[in-house]
Amino acid sequence: MASKFLGFLNRSKGAVDPVCHMEVDTGKPPGGTSVHDEETYYFCGPGCRIAFEKDPVSYLSGEKRLDM
Amino acid sequence: MTTNLINLSLSIEGMTCAACLLHVENALLEVPGIDSVSVNLATEKAVVSLSEQVNTEIIANSLKDAGYGARIETQKVVLSDKVDVDDAGKFIEQYLMIDGIRSASIEGNLLNIENYLGAVQNEDIRSIANSHGLDVIEFEKGFDPHALAKESESKELKQRSFVALLGAASVFAISMGMVDLSQFNIPENMHLFTQFFIATPIQFWAGMSFYRGALSAATHKTTNMNTLVSIGTLAAYGYSSVITFFPGILEARGDELSVYYDTSLIIISLILLGRFLESKARSNAASAINSLLKLQPKTAILVRDKNHIKVPIESIQPGNLILVKPGETIPTDGKILTGSSTVDESMLTGESMPVTKLKNSKVIGGTINLSGSFEFEATETGSSTVLSNIVKIVEDAQSSKPPIQLVADRIASYFVPTVIIVSLLTFLFWMIFGPQPALTNSVLNMITVLVIACPCALGLAAPTATMASTGTGAKHGILVRGFEALENARKASIAIFDKTGTLTKGAPVVNDVKLLGEWNHSEVIEKAATVEKYSEHPLGEAIVNYGKKNQIQSGEATNFLSTPGQGVSANIDGSEVMLGNELFFSNHDVTLDEYKAIGDVTYGDTKIYMAINKVPAGIIYISDEIKPSAKQAIEDLHKLGISTIMLTGDSEEAALHVAEVLGIDEVKANLSPKNKLDFIKELQLTGVSVLMVGDGINDGPALVQADVGIALGTGTDVAIESAGITLASNNLNGVISALKLSRKTIATIWQNFFWAFIYNILLIPIAAGVLYPIFSSGDLPSMLSWVLSEQGFLNPVLAAFAMAFSSVSVVTNSLRLTRFKP
User: What is the value of pTM for the model shown?
Assistant: First the structure.
């Protein structure tokens, strides 16, 4: 509980898109969000989100990744 | 084996970042028949090369599967006549056979088509109409992707904020007793429930965006304005609901039942209102392509086998021979084969003097042909022309600009934790030191702090100021296209100016006349003006104007002869008068020694030599006239501590001359549009904020890249679309005014933030219960009973008042901007 509270004071802002690994604004993610295994993921664009939803495990394990 | 490649272009929706580009490319390449793909994020266009006929639907579906869409447009094609009833069926059928067209229907002489944007050429539509004996009069395209998306967002915000306002007003009226619910046969004990039932759906429908936003911020350990609003409104709502369903809690404290439903709705509606205003004021990422289209003529004259055929611009192919007459805009890039002329290239290259074009000279599409006629062979067309490339650079620069984080969000991220701490401290204090019922008091006070701390006017601070500022600016000829431009203008420490057309008027003017030989000033000018009267060259025009200005009458001349690129000559009363450059004179065996003997007084001018009967008569100096307002503007900028730099596509000589006269700190000449852009980029890397003033197409990329781009209203459309601020007039004082306006605007916004918070902050202690010790004995003076509860705790009415006062203060403060004087 204390760590969550202290978390409010921490001003880090970004999430990392699990497909393309770009930083995403959590306030307004351009690609929306997707929940997998009770974790919420943020996406830079619809393509990354759709790709993720088709095969979340591979992207999370690092097996698959969008080469930028 | 050669394959015939067909190109298909589509407009892609949904691409937000570089990764999207890859997804789209992959999706397209997966479709059999697609050979290669080129996707542009900035223009949102994809061009695919097909090695075989591919159904556009299949391509569209592949895109959809990947999460993107091929945009669809609706067109109304106006035909020259009504379609014959018997013909109609076949007519429609033929259109439906065109790949890319999804549906077609006829209404009298109107053909309604729905097709994939970019996939269907006007040519194809026209040819089918022609085959039925009909002409196409006009294509009315109805689709503008950017505008539509912005519009629906605006509409949604408008709806929500007004519904919330309505709800807030009703609940406020009820809770203040302005509306007597017993009139509606609602029993007394149901009054609170009525508020609950009205408030609940509105709160969650209108406020949902805040709650979602707060949640996502929270799971990533940040707080922003959404968090602030959510905490305030949910605390107010939650507290009120509990009181409504369990009135016993408050009674234990001896308080009357006071709820905050209206406070919560007021907060929601005001913040939504702020966002609505913001969305309307936000800058439109303007499409430079539109300005490009406006620049090009719609038709050109194709020369084929000695015939002149009028053709639409899109159908010009490299290798075609095109005829251009005086005054026309050159349709595309090419090389002159026959004829000669002078061309105004200033908006594209920045060259101040008209350029002579002879056989084998290159001409650039989009520039204006001045005096002569010529035929040229098209070398580049469509998207590979010089003009298109500049526009491409502009669009790329536009798409790479990151959006500005709202100041309000940053403030909120500091404010929220503070408020939470204060409320927790309040809770602890009352738990430890407070009278019974301790828990109730602690919770109630903590919640009250959370409610009162929410500054609803925060959402109005920036938008109202921006709106007032842009409105005022417009009245003074400063057209602002977005808040970012104003904010950055204030911080600028370097001002960059284009030369031709910006610092100068862009038209040649006679600067000086040096006499040689026995003729005096009037005689020389009279003869020069007389000869040049017959010339169509802008330099000649300058001489004629000079004559008029000096009230020297011009006479008549005969045997006027013009040698393009060299000079003119004519016969006046038996004397042969020649005007021209070195080449002209050496070709006519006139010695140049006497001319060269005169040293250059002002360098950078164009020199016109004059001779009468082959005897040197004088030299006329012509240059691009500097704007009168330029000197003052540069001085004022220096006074403000801003250094000045000139970037121009013109020659170094001309540039240095102007810079010296105006006192400009640094000069860079012979620059291409990309050079200007790169220069600004490099400056920005050193951490400086850059302001740029320009007017030409070649300024486009730089105007976009600059922190503040200011275009002159008299300039090209591309410049205006690239810049964040446009000055309605030619006068450079507008730059200083724009700077002053932006400083005032930013100051106003910070003042607004102050007003948004101050009332709420002052009330926080009261919410925390500091007045309790004073009034605990129950001796509340009747005057204060209206705003404080029995024991000195905060009454919700105070919260509503705080909201009202802060909002009124913010709006009034913003309106002060309307008194701005440049």
Answer: 0.61
